[in-house]
Amino acid sequence: MEQWKMTNLHPKLKDVTERIEARSAETRAAYLDLIRSRKPSGFAREKLADGNLAHASAGCAVIDKTQLLGASWPNIGIITAYNDMLSAHAPYEHYPEIIRDAARKVNATAQVAGGVPAMCDGVTQGQEGMELSLFSRDVIALASAVSLSHDMFDGALHLGICDKIVPGLMIAALRFGWLPHVFVPGGPMPSGLPNPEKQRIRQEYALGKVGRDALLKAESESYHSPGTCTFYGTANSNQMLMEVMGLHLPGAAFENPGTPLREALTRASVERAVALTIKRDYTPMGEMIDAKSWVNALVGLMATGGSTNHALHIPAMAASSGYQITLEDFEDVSSVTPLLCRIYPNGPADVNHFQAAGGMSFVMRELLDAGLMNAEAKGVMGPIAEHAKEPWLDGGKLAFRDAPMTSGDLDIVRPVSDPFQAEGGLRMLQGPLGRGVIKVSSVKQDRRVITAPARVFDSQEALKEAFKAGELDRDVVAVVRFQGPAANGMPELHALSPALGALQDKGFRVALVTDGRMSGASGKIPAAIHVGPEAARGGPLARVQDGDVITLDAETGRLDVDIDPTVFEAREPAQFRPNISGQGLGRELFSAFRDNADRPESGGSLFDFFLPGSLRA
User: Fold this and answer.
1) DSSP-assigned letter for residue 546
2) Within this chain, do residues 205 and 332 fall inside the same structural domain, yes or no?
3) Does residue 64 share a domain with residue 141?
4) Bridge partners, 434 (sequence order)
5) What is the structure's pLDDT at 223?
6) Quick one: pLDDT at residue 4?
7) CA contacts within 13 A on the Cβ side of 305
8) What is the pLDDT at residue 348?
9) Residue 45 confidence (pLDDT) above 80
10) Mean pLDDT, the chain, integer
């Protein structure tokens, strides 16, 4: 810790932190007033009436009921995203038993406060159900709030991993910021079919070279057992964020399920949550997580080449703690943060290979050494510098040791002195077509500037049909519009990756421009995503026509259309025609979300934690 105290934080990161604090002064103050007004004077259930408490303890084991009624031990609430359809969340089935036992051993009780939905983007990619995906984040936040609203709890443990689940849990945890919160991961599945081989077979299927049997075989060999998918998409980017923000125990993210070390980390997470409660070392999450924490999150995202979905999730999560984060913050942090990792889709390795090569402890130590991470930000183990360690079992007991000093594989993770590239993996784009982001960490250098005629689509299905018909066998910028939150819930367009990738592999210069989003696992096609204002709300993409020459320039951050601005503005915008979108599979229940969603660069959220109208479209 002393060595990092003496390291000056990079001046650009200091500037970004200070401007977030200045921009958010009023909203952060209002947030702190809220959580400080709820600061407990004793255990939460002490203020409940006898009838309330009787209901809350009726179903407990006798030992827990005695302590709950006596109010002499802290009580920890468990928010679980368990279901056995998601491989990542299947291991959570037996966690409550482990947690209750671990709590009793440190004189505490634990109860499952509630369950939250957890949908799998892998199951819904390219399907109608994907239109609920982004909004499921806010549903998870709402369900978590209902669970914690019983006001029985002195701290909380959050069991969640995948795409919208961790952000939803985070939003709710921060709104209950007078409590301590610890996030408890489940770990990745063991490595299966190498990711580049999986991608090759997907593209061959798109080209009609192999059949569905070969595709299903490859997919099943990739996703084959309980645990998180092993590519570095949104789920594993979530786990990285929890590490750099100090909401996990150090090194907890990428240990496989079912190992003695995984169970030891889970039990220790319970012990830590108990230790942070009101009558012990009280550490409310809402005060622990501050602007330094959010800038560290941005640094971690850039240094590891994390998911573009976090250009949506980080602003939404930060807003729940009173902070306003903009695309300019992403851009400026990326400009000084070197890319240290090559994990699929940015390289052939998966997260298990990354963990073996040094993992998050190595990355965090490198960033701290270089003044690229604020060591004074706080986590559940204390200053974030204390989180740059790796867990191990010493005689069967959990211990933490210093991060490795060298990378175990320079093709996977590198030191700051020898990065894969000097800047981070995410950049802002802006111009007459709007503002958005692009992930460049896996886009080859010669593909970062694309100029080509536009082909405009109002759905991803229309693009697929044009590809199958051979209509896209040329240089093309595919514009896929009416894919934002207000139109259809902003589904991921990852199902377009095989087609666009196949065109690029044929030698054509190809790019995607969309007001929708791509999967965290997408990458090799230059894609301007989250472009706003979205077309359904009259954004510029509604005026683009077939044949317009578009330039996507990831080097200068420009998104241009080669047409006289006066002519472009005079065009009648295409009108969004929802037809069957919004009906069936429960989509009609989410009309209020579509009508009231925030703009994508502010998170696309239903919630407005700021001053009325301050960030809405």
Assistant:
1) T
2) no
3) yes
4) 431
5) 73
6) 53
7) 30
8) 87
9) yes
10) 92
Structural domain containing residue 112: 2-190+225-402
Determine if residue 120 is labeled as part of a ligand binding site: no
pLDDT over 80 at 157, yes or no: yes
Same domain, 186 and 211: no
pLDDT, average across residues 385-414: 95
Q: Which residues pair with 255 in a beta bridge?
A: none
Give the CA distances from residue 241 to residues 171, 244, 263, 307, 474, in Å, rounded to whole numbers and listed in that order: 14, 5, 21, 11, 39
Query: How far apart are alpha carbons 174 and 34 in whole angstroms?
Result: 11
Provide the pLDDT for residue 194: 76
CA distance linking residue 366 with residue 387, whole number of Å = 13
Rounded Cα–Cα distance for residues 116 and 136 (Å): 10
For 252-279, write each residue's pLDDT tens digit. Answer: 999 999 999 999 999 999 999 999 999 9
According to DSSP H, which parts of 44-120 are helical? 50-57, 62-70, 95-104
The verdict on 216 and 269 lying in the same domain is no
* 162 annotated ligand binder: yes
438 shares its domain with 294: no
Tokens found for residue 566:
């006066």
Same structural domain, 130 and 175:
yes
pLDDT of residue 617: 43
416 found inside a domain: no
Instruction: With a cut of 80, say whether residue 485 has pLDDT above it.
Output: yes
- Domain contains 591: no
**How far is residue 267's CA from residue 289's CA, in Å, rounded to a whole number?**
23
If you write DSSP's letter for every residue of 26-41 in order, what string do you get? HHHHHHHHHHHHT--S
Dihedrals phi, psi of 550, to nearest 5 degrees? -110, 140
How does pLDDT run across 120-140, given as a tens digit for each residue? 988 888 889 999 999 999 999
Tell whether 132 is covered by a domain: yes
120 and 269 share a domain? yes
| Number of compact structural domains in the chain | 3
Helices (H) and strands (E) in the chain, counts: 24, 16
b/e burial code for range 365-381 (CB count within 10 A of at least 16 → b): bbbbbbbbbbbebbbbb
Distance separating alpha carbons of residues 316 and 334, to the nearest angstrom? 19
47: in domain: yes
Structure tokens at 2: 């002393």
Do 395 and 509 belong to one domain? no
Q: Tell me the sheet residues that pair with 379.
A: 382
The CA distance from 212 to 192, in Å, is 19
Q: What is the rounded distance in angstroms from the CA atom of residue 113 to the CA atom of residue 235?
A: 23
